[in-house]
Amino acid sequence: MTTRRRWGLAAVVVAIYAFLLAPFVVLALSSLSGGEAYYISFPPRGLSTRWYLAIPASYLRSFAVSVAIGVASALAAGLLGVAAALGIVRGRYRRKELLKAFFRAPLQIPLVVSGVVFLQFYYVLFGLTGVRLLESFTGLLLAHVFISLPFVVGTVCAVLEKFDRRLEEAAYSLGASRWTTFRRVTLPVIRPGVFAGMLYAFIVSFGNVPVSLFLVGPRLTTLPVDLFYSMEYDFNPSILALSTLVVVFSVLTILLLQRLMGMDVLVRAGAKE
Question: Phi and psi of 40, rounded to 5°?
Answer without folding.
Answer: -100, 135
